[in-house]
């Protein structure tokens, strides 16, 4: 009787193992990766106009930091990179209806979106940073050092920069501006100690006008990640994306592209 029970247990175990293995194979076959490889194209949903992530140059070509990252991804797959430009509010619906394979559109990862789609690891953290008047170099080493009544902090009205300045630097004097450029010029002209604002704008302003007049606290001190979005139920694609991003960030390519788009303004010459 014991031998019969043992044999039955082994049969059931093998049956479950075979079933699980078959399910895993079926899931892998349904992965977007398979569709991309068969088609020979990687369809990336973008919203051209988010500087310097995705833009249209004077020749009508798509350029930008995230465009270059996506090109590298297509190259790693051995397929053609196909950017699909659309309005931002239509990108998730386009993904869910299989009009695109992946969202590469400067999308902030948040809980609401994560209920609809999955995200790979962040491509960048574009939280709040600070550009500071050069006169304070050596004295200000962290954004926390700005939390004093002796300093005036500026940002754009109604932005996460304004929220961060008021929340994290409550002791400082705060002044808002209608545009981010006006706020930055206040620091450049020595009328304010620092500007708290999104990493992309501060990096570009620093590269264009900050030399010798400003210094940059470029490590974000709020968490606002941008990530690539894919359809749910696709562990193989998530696995590929995360490993690709780790490789990119550790073999020098990521740093090279970051310097090209955030620490230089040579790309401005290509713009319309």
From TrEMBL:
<dbReference type="GO" id="GO:0015276">
    <property type="term" value="F:ligand-gated monoatomic ion channel activity"/>
</dbReference>
<dbReference type="GO" id="GO:0016020">
    <property type="term" value="C:membrane"/>
</dbReference>
<feature type="domain" description="Ionotropic glutamate receptor C-terminal">
    <location>
        <begin position="41"/>
        <end position="264"/>
    </location>
</feature>
<dbReference type="InterPro" id="IPR018313">
    <property type="entry name" value="SBP_3_CS"/>
</dbReference>
<dbReference type="GO" id="GO:0030313">
    <property type="term" value="C:cell envelope"/>
</dbReference>
<protein>
    <submittedName>
        <fullName>Polar amino acid transport system substrate-binding protein</fullName>
    </submittedName>
</protein>
<dbReference type="Pfam" id="PF00497">
    <property type="entry name" value="SBP_bac_3"/>
</dbReference>
<comment type="similarity">
    <text>Belongs to the bacterial solute-binding protein 3 family.</text>
</comment>
<feature type="domain" description="Solute-binding protein family 3/N-terminal">
    <location>
        <begin position="41"/>
        <end position="265"/>
    </location>
</feature>
<dbReference type="InterPro" id="IPR001320">
    <property type="entry name" value="Iontro_rcpt_C"/>
</dbReference>
<feature type="signal peptide">
    <location>
        <begin position="1"/>
        <end position="22"/>
    </location>
</feature>
<dbReference type="InterPro" id="IPR001638">
    <property type="entry name" value="Solute-binding_3/MltF_N"/>
</dbReference>
<keyword id="KW-0732">Signal</keyword>
């Amino acid at each position: 009787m014991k031998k019969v029970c043992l044999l039955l247990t082994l049969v059931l175990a093998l049956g479950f193992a075979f079933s699980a293995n078959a399910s895993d194979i079926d899931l892998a076959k349904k992965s977007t990766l398979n569709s991309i490889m068969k088609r020979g194209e990687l369809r990336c949903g973008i919203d051209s106009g988010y500087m310097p992530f995705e833009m249209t140059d004077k020749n009508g070509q798509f350029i930008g930091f995230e465009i270059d990252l996506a090109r590298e991804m297509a190259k790693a797959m051995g397929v053609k990179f196909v950017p699909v430009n659309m309005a931002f509010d239509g990108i998730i619906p386009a993904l869910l209806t299989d009009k695109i394979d992946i969202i590469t559109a400067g999308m902030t990862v948040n809980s609401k979106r994560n209920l609809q789609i999955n995200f790979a690891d962040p491509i960048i953290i574009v939280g709040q940073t600070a550009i500071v008047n050069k006169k304070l170099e050596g004295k200000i080493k962290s954004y926390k050092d700005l939390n004093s009544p002796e300093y005036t902090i500026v940002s754009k009205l109604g932005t996460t920069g304004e929220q961060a300045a008021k929340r994290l630097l409550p002791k400082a004097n705060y002044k808002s501006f209608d545009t981010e450029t006006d706020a930055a010029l206040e620091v450049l002209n020595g009328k304010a100690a620092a500007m708290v604002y999104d990493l992309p704008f501060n990096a570009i302003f620093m590269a264009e006008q900050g030399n010798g007049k400003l210094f940059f606290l470029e490590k974000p001190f709020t968490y606002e990640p941008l990530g690539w979005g894919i359809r749910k139920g696709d562990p193989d694609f998530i696995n590929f994306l995360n490993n690709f991003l780790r490789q990119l960030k550790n073999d020098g390519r990521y740093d090279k592209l970051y310097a090209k788009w955030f620490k230089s303004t040579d790309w401005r010459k290509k713009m319309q």
